[in-house]
Amino acid sequence: SVFVLASFVLSCSAKVQRFPRPGESLAADIVMIEPGGKGLNLAVAARRLGAEVDGLLAVGDDLASAFAAPALAQADLPASMLIRVVGKTGSGVGFTDAHGETCLAVDPGANHALSADHVREAAERIAAAAMVMAQFEIADGPIAEALALARRAGVTTLLNPSPFRPIPDEILATTDILVLNQTEAEALAETVLPGAIDPAEPARFVSELGPAVLARGPRLVVLTLGAAGAVALGHEGAIGQPAFPVDVVDTLGAGDAFAAALGVALARGLGTAEALRQAAAAGAVATRRAGVFDALGCQADLDQLIGL
Ligand code: ADP
């Protein structure tokens, strides 16, 4: 099974012709209220692929918290993932204009109240997993605790440090698989590359960026490159994975789908190259439909795109 250090964000988004000006109130084309959050996306994506999923997800004691249990149930995720704290549930407000530009503000709320103590209480569940997956919508303390517990129990760990902030050394030291985009990798390696890495030339990743990231702890660093694909660097060498050609509707959730599929494939014992192929297929499938949950693929969708 995979254990996800999840997050919950109730998102309220409005489609508008143009962004409202300061002081202005304008009619939206549509307003949508829906559960989300990177951590929930990871959990839903892993479950959609048939993995048994456990994890932790914190909500507050306000009205917004009422959206969490149905969201878990609908995704066939265990209600035991839910942790209730005093305070506000994570929520966000956003606008998308007629050009597809978006602007967004998020209050992490209860996600930042998920603590190392909560994680310690789940120690046995973590030790029972094949893979622990973490993301950065929660604080460093619980991530460090979960990864350390996993490491001690021989459980593989995967970190997707998004939304990016500097990664503490103790977290990097207990991360087996680090999944990040080029901007995040450059920030971590304290360098800026001229131009984008090309999956057809993984050697450039090896010479210019990978080793600086690898040296900080992980045994596998996976760089996502949007419509170009992805590249992975481990101690055995580098692998480039071109993106699968698809008709893109919106790329929302592609990164989460990619990370979840990579974790599930590696937890199932697949090799790096095959896991990377599965991840790229999951990312591509997630772009074929609008939104996140509706767009996530099942294993058959991935296999079909890969041509298995
Ligand atoms: P994020 O959403 O975190 O920025 P990316 O945009 O890099 O992440 O997407 C994650 C992965 O999803 C990519 O590495 C790629 O494999 C796949 N993907 C993303 N956009 C496309 C696309 N336009 N066509 C095909 N695959 C895509």
TrEMBL record:
Subcellular location, record wording: Cytoplasm
GO MF, one annotated term: kinase activity
Catalytic machinery residues: D256 (proton acceptor)
Cofactor binding annotation: Requires a divalent cation, most likely magnesium in vivo, as an electrophilic catalyst to aid phosphoryl group transfer. It is the chelate of the metal and the nucleotide that is the actual substrate.
Assembly behavior: Homodimer.
Pathway it works in: Carbohydrate metabolism; D-ribose degradation; D-ribose 5-phosphate from beta-D-ribopyranose: step 2/2
Binding site for substrate: G37, K38, G39, L40, N41, E137, D256
Known cofactor(s): Mg(2+)
Binding site for ATP: N181, T224, L225, G226, A227, A228, G229, G255, D256
Gene3D superfamilies, per the entry: 3.40.1190.20
Organism: Bosea massiliensis
Catalytic activity: D-ribose + ATP = D-ribose 5-phosphate + ADP + H(+)
Protein name in the entry: Ribokinase
Keywords: ATP-binding, Carbohydrate metabolism, Cytoplasm, Kinase, Magnesium, Metal-binding, Nucleotide-binding, Potassium, Transferase
Family: Belongs to the carbohydrate kinase PfkB family. Ribokinase subfamily.
Record InterPro entries: PfkB_dom, Ribo/fructo_kinase, Ribokinase, Ribokinase-like
